Amino acid sequence: MELAKSNSGISGTNMSTTMLLLKARTFIALIVLVAVFSFLAPNFLAVQSIMLIAKHVALYAILGIGMTFVVVSGGIDLSVGSIVGLAGMIAGGLIYEGLVLPMFGVTVYFSVPMVILITLITGTLMGSVNGLLVTKFNVAPFIATLGMLYVARGIAMLRSDGKTFPNLVGKPELGNTGFPLLGAGTFLGIPYAIWIMIVLGFIAAYLFKKTPFGWHIFAVGGNERAAELSGVRVKRVKILVYMFSGFCAAIVGLIVSSQLVASHPATGETWELNAIAAAVLGGTSLAGGRGTIGGTVLGAFVIGVLSDGMVMMGVSEFWQMVIKGLVIVLAVIVDQFQRNLQNKLALESRNK
């Protein structure tokens, strides 16, 4: 009996250690990647390289934060990359050629703050369509957002017949200058994109952990039927998380167009993979009901370091896609292993 207890204690200790390592897996992966690329890519730790990586991480993190809300609620959003492209085309078109009103024979030009507001509203509305398809018409999230992926990309193409809106600097006489500042401006030496990521991350984390809305998201993702029976307005929660995801995608579209000082309808292609990867690597369960904003931001750092590190090493873009896909699959496998281990530990604690 004493030997059995001893072996059980050892087993329990091993499982607890394994669980600790699993929870820290994203941070460990980040440290390993930084060490490897620092050795293989001589300029990886240069100030300019770090700043460039941080800008890319900010984009992945903002998309990932919106994706985390959706995935924790038990859904998925495959349309975020296309909404990024659409948002860029909306903003670029309003600055480059204004809003043409042929019935009145006039063209209206908006100030940059108004352009930003209109673009954010557009992204949020696209997200609301996803939410309505899922809740009102009972379309599976995968299918609903896959359809919206094509719809948003098609609208982006139609906006300019597939052409680019170039030189988005605006004109003083039209009152629409200043757009490039969003992508190129800095505060305390840190680009605005990174500040936006930080502010949005804190707001999202507060909503997640300190508000009834955040608790309802976890409840819906954990057990939708139980949440509904307990009084949670499940449909409203689902619509709101998709709206927030669209809002985040619109922010990214604005930042990218501002950084490039141009808008192209193909912007954001496959970026939904980066958003999903950031969320899953950060510990968000694709089964719903579990995830953290901090984990997603850390996952975005892993994706950013991995992507830029491979670019600096000259890895083919095709191989980069393969590796990112494998990272997502591996992250899901590890997440499933963690869930099974948690269930075993919980069962052991109840049997003691």
Describe the structure in your own words.
- The chain has 352 residues and is mainly α.
- Helices cover 73% and strands 3% of the residues.
- The chain contains 14 helices and four strands.
- Strands 1-2 form a two-stranded antiparallel ribbon.
- Helix 2 packs parallel to helix 13 and helix 4 crosses helix 11.
- The longest helix is centred in the C-terminal third of the chain and has 35 residues.
- The protein is globular, with a radius of gyration of 22 Å.
- The chain starts with a helix and ends with a helix.
What structural keywords apply?
globular, disordered N terminus, two-stranded antiparallel ribbon, mainly alpha, 14 helices, single chain, 352 residues
Give a brief description.
It is built from 14 helices and 4 strands. With 352 residues, it is an all-alpha fold. The chain is globular, with a radius of gyration of 22 Å.
Task: Report low-confidence residues grouped into runs of 5 or more.
Answer: 1-10
Q: How many beta-strand runs? A: 4
Order of strands, main sheet, comes to: 1-2
Can you give the mean pLDDT? 89
Main sheet, how many strands, which sense, barrel?
2 strands, antiparallel
Structural class comes to mainly alpha
Order of helices and strands: HHHHEEHHHEEHHHHHHH
Share of helix, binned: over 70%
**Percent strand:** under 5%
Shape: globular
The number of helical segments is 14
Head-to-tail CA distance between termini: 15 Å
Radius of gyration: 22 Å
Oligomer: single chain
